[in-house]
């Protein structure tokens, strides 16, 4: 034992006293992570394999029964599909809008700092604030969207109660919340692009659009990938907007995965089924996070 | 010359258009909050301010215990921020400047915590907090968020930039790790700590799912949950609901305007530096 300590001390050029201090400094964070991040994963795995009674009493081991039940459940299939559609609405729209605003914020004109502040301001808004504010815009009677549609001679839309539109309406709210983050990250990326390239492209007589598509976009692709992955992860975690605007309705058309987990666990007391869905969502998000780390590494290499 | 002027005009036009998209919803919330009660829900919708009735703010304040909610949110967000900064500084320093067995493994585990999104752990964490007797308490709102992988990463990167000669010289002068951290490390890391603090406070203030789960009465409810309740309960009084929205938004909006630089640096640190 003493020899092992001596060997480790020599290898780390430090003493056991320093190890103890280091462990003491790490302990608070380690305990929080252990209790509230890692233990829950194990606990969720346990709950997914056991039937628990909400009224107490022992847990019964049921093997993969609850996994099979969830994987065969039509409500689960629907929430997967709704979540996928939600990502496909929010992420592309958010990136196009963010790119547009970041490009604008990158212009060198007087007062641009004010516009940069404005574009990043949705960062201050919470999902609850955004959702409540958007009830104003989406109101079927006197909301601004339906007013514009009526003025243009169209048929007004019941944004939040029409199964065809509800998910899109909630998606618009989410895109709006995300503008601040997307714009800031893409603006930082634009500002980091080498100036000389643009000067030489202009000397060669390339037009603005050509420069944007041939030079800016390719150079920006690592940042775009980063933003895409982060927005996808945050879209997969969506809950607040749904709870305020639609509560998963109409007909489950906005019942995204996190809302389904919440409802199953806390309203229908199906802790096992909710745990299965949690673990599946974890698997999806973990893969995306790995992709994000890989994307960031790609960028560092690139720079 | 006129070509340039036209282009400049176009740029400003587009900038204003972008601003309208971003600020439009908030602008509508403000003018609706200022509407006198008789004017709410009129058609066509009000797009210009009509009167200046600040009575709705008082109504929002009285309809639900808005003051209590704000205090609760403030206590929660401050508690989370202080604890996140403290745990990140201590762990970040140990991981960057001290040598001990298992350091790499611990670092990987801490970063790995970023891969576990909060939403997937709500069921077990709810059970844990309930078993601690922490439902409807500040501990229940704060302690689960006392550490953050992102903050530890940020501070570790910052402390890694301290040249080892500096540490060696301090050691010669008899500085232990703790004194070195306090008198050299923390002052050097101040910008990173600032970014982390602003980011932590903003995210904590804006939380929704967890406070919804662990609070059931007004004594501990946060302003986000209170706002959702207000909007559900007062569907017919749009001006009151929008006044509540602005009350809930103001603290973070001020924070953002004052500390914009810190926040932008924090957000882009992960993206650009890697």
List the helices and strands and how they pair.
The complex is a heterodimer of chains A (303) and B (274).
Chain A: H1 2-12, H2 16-49, E1 50-51, E2 60-61, H3 65-72, H4 74-105, H5 112-120, H6 127-138, H7 144-151, H8 166-191, H9 195-203, H10 208-236, H11 240-245, H12 257-267, H13 271-302
Antiparallel strand pairs in A: 1-2
Chain B: H1 2-33, H2 55-63, H3 66-97, H4 103-112, H5 122-131, H6 138-142, H7 149-160, H8 164-172, H9 177-188, H10 190-205, H11 209-214, H12 223-233, H13 238-258, H14 260-273
Describe this structure in words.
The complex is a heterodimer of chains A (303) and B (274). Chain A is mainly alpha-helical. Helices cover 75% and strands 1% of the residues of chain A. Chain A has 13 helices and two strands. Chain A has a two-stranded antiparallel sheet. In chain A, helix 3 (65-72) packs across helix 13. The longest helix of chain A has 34 residues, at 16-49. The relative contact order of chain A is 0.12. The model of chain A has no long low-confidence stretch (mean pLDDT 88). With 274 residues, chain B is an all-alpha fold. Chain B contains 14 helices and no strands. Chain B has helices spanning 2-33, 55-63, 66-97, 103-112, 122-131, 138-142, 149-160, 164-172, 177-188, 190-205, 209-214, 223-233, 238-258, 260-273. In chain B, helix 1 (2-33) packs across helix 13, helix 2 packs across helix 13 and helix 3 (66-97) packs across helix 7. Chain B is globular and about 75 Å long. The two termini of chain B are 43 Å apart. The model of chain B has no long low-confidence stretch (mean pLDDT 89). Chains A and B meet through helix 2, helix 4, helix 5, helix 6 and helix 8 of A and helix 1, helix 3, helix 4, helix 5 and helix 11 of B.
């Amino acid at each position: 034992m003493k020899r092992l300590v001596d060997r480790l001390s020599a290898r780390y050029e430090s003493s056991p006293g320093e190890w103890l201090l280091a462990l003491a400094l790490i302990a608070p964070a380690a305990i929080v992570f252990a209790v509230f991040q890692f233990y829950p994963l194990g606990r969720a795995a346990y709950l997914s394999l056991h039937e628990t009674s909400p009224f107490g009493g022992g847990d019964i081991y049921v093997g993969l029964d609850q996994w099979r039940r969830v994987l065969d459940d039509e409500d689960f299939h629907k929430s997967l599909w709704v979540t996928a559609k939600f990502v496909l609405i929010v992420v592309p729209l958010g990136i196009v809008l963010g790119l547009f605003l970041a490009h604008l914020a990158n212009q060198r004109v007087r007062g641009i700092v004010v516009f940069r502040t404005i574009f990043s301001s949705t960062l201050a808004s919470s999902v609850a604030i955004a959702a409540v504010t958007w009830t104003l815009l989406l109101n079927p009677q006197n909301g601004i969207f339906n007013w514009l549609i009526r003025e243009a001679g169209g048929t007004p839309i019941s944004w939040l109660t029409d199964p065809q539109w509800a998910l899109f309406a909630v998606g618009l709210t989410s895109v709006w919340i995300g503008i601040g983050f997307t714009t800031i990250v893409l603006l930082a990326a634009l500002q980091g692009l080498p100036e000389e390239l643009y000067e030489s492209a202009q000397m060669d007589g390339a037009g603005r659009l050509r420069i944007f598509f041939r030079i800016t976009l390719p150079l920006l692709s690592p940042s775009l990938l980063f933003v895409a992955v982060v927005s996808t992860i945050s879209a997969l975690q969506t809950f607040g907007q749904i709870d305020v605007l639609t509560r998963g309705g109409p007909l489950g058309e906005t019942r995204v995965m996190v809302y389904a987990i919440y409802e199953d666990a806390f309203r229908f007391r199906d802790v096992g089924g909710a745990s299965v869905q949690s673990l599946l969502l974890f698997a999806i998000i973990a893969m995306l996070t790995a992709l994000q780390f890989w994307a960031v590494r790609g960028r560092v290499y690139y720079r | 010359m006129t070509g340039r002027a036209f282009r400049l005009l176009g740029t400003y036009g587009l900038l204003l258009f972008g601003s309208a998209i971003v600020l439009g919803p908030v602008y509508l919330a403000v003018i609706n909050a200022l509407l006198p009660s008789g004017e709410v829900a009129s058609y066509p919708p009000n797009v210009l301010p009509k009167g200046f009735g600040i009575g709705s703010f008082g109504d929002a304040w009285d309809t639900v215990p808005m003051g209590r909610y704000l205090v609760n949110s403030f206590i929660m967000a401050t508690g989370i921020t202080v604890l996140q900064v403290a745990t990140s500084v201590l762990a970040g320093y140990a991981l960057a400047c001290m040598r001990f067995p298992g350091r790499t493994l611990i670092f990987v585990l801490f970063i790995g915590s970023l891969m576990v999104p909060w939403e997937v752990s709500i069921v077990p964490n709810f059970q844990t907090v309930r078993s601690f007797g922490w439902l409807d308490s500040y501990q229940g709102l704060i302690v689960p968020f006392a550490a953050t992988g992102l903050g530890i990463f940020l501070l570790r990167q910052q402390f890694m930039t301290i040249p080892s000669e500096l540490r060696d010289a301090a050691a010669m002068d008899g500085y232990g790790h703790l004194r070195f951290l306090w008198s050299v490390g923390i002052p050097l890391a101040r910008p990173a700590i600032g970014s982390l603090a602003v980011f932590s406070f903003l995210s904590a203030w804006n939380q929704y799912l967890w406070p919804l789960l662990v609070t059931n009465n007004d004594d501990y409810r946060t302003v986000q949950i209170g706002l959702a309740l207000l909007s559900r309960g007062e569907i017919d009084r749009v001006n009151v609901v929008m006044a509540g929205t602005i009350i809930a938004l103001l603290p973070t909006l001020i924070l953002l305007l004052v500390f914009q630089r810190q926040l932008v640096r924090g957000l882009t640190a992960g993206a650009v530096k890697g």
